[in-house]
Design brief:
49% of the residues lie in helices and 12% in strands. It is built from 10 helices and 7 strands. A 7-stranded parallel beta sheet has the order 3-2-1-4-5-6-7, sandwiched between helices. Strand 4, helix 4 and strand 5 form a beta-alpha-beta unit. Helix 1 packs across helix 8 and helix 4 runs parallel beside helix 5. It starts with a strand and ends in an 8-residue tail after the last helix.
Length: 285
């Protein structure tokens, strides 16, 4: 039985990946931050699912979980690490508290680095591990190649994941460990539903406030109209199992729009987005 570690397994893409891979015969180790989620997933997903209790930004906790997985593997190499855990922070760059921007980067960028360092030996960087070398799947986003106003922290983190993955893939060729990027568009996950919990009151006097309200509505709509998380899970499984996977898979419900955004001149796209969000400068007399 092949084994895989998935970060952020409690909901959304991580939960869907856990279910899908279990159905494909994998043993799944899934990270959660709360004991209640660990208990729930153990009950829902069955004996081949093992919860790992850690926050991806807690280096000591991640390393301890890696040792737990090493013991369970009993010398066999880990087949995959899915770096999925993430958050989405919104706000204007010029006004967003630095602590919030830093938290975005800690979770979405430093977290995957911590997990990769902890689990890479089990994927085969440690020559003592037996069997086929494992793979790393990095969950990025179409935002990894595009940038949306007022979602700069999230876009920045996903751009960083793209660069990290490109570099890491070439480094880990030394051990036969592949790195594959999965870049979804809008997906029906709680990460967007949580936009309703964002407190916009600190920005009420900001010139960005009307646009922030529109962005929140946009984020809430993503949580309702996006792709099913199961669609992404199926592609993650492909990345882990196909004999010759591509280095990057983009899965978006609006693929044509994504293509148009890329071929149009940047200034044209700037004006379209600004007009839609109300970010065009006021006409001066």
């Amino acid at each position: 039985m092949k084994s895989v570690v998935i970060t952020g397994a409690s909901t959304g893409i991580g939960f869907a990946c856990s279910k899908h891979l279990l159905a494909r015969g994998f043993r799944v180790f899934g990270s959660v931050r709360k004991q209640a989620d660990a208990d729930r997933l153990r009950s829902e997903l069955g004996a081949n699912f093992t919860p790992l209790l850690f926050d991806v930004t807690d280096e000591a906790a991640v390393k301890a979980a890696a040792e737990e997985v090493r013991a369970a593997l009993a010398g066999e190499a880990l087949a995959g690490l899915v770096n999925n855990a993430g958050i989405a922070v919104a706000g204007p760059v010029t006004e967003l508290p630095i602590a919030q921007f830093r938290h975005q980067m800690e979770v979405n960028v430093i977290g995957p680095v911590i997990a990769t360092q902890a689990f890479a030996p089990l994927l085969g960087a440690d020559p003592a591990m037996k069997g086929e070398r494992g793979r790393i799947v990095m969950v990025s986003s179409v935002a990894g190649r595009n940038g949306n106003p007022l979602l700069a922290p999230y876009s920045t983190s996903k751009h960083a994941i793209e660069g990290l993955s490109e570099s890491l893939r070439r480094e880990l060729m030394l051990f036969g460990i592949d790195v594959i990027v999965i870049a979804p568009g809008a997906v029906k996950t709680p990460i967007w539903a949580k936009a309703d919990e964002v407190d916009l009151s600190p920005y009420q006097a900001s010139p960005f406030f009307p646009a922030l309200q529109r962005i929140r509505a946009f984020m809430l709509n993503l949580g309702k109209s996006g792709l099913p998380a199961e669609t992404i899970a199926a592609r993650v499984a492909d990345a882990l199992t196909l004999p010759a996977p591509k280095v990057r898979y983009e899965i978006a419900p609006d693929a044509m729009r994504q293509w148009i955004v890329r071929v149009l001149p940047k200034r044209t796209v700037d004006r379209i987005i600004a007009k839609r969000l109300g970010l065009m400068p006021a006409t001066r007399p």
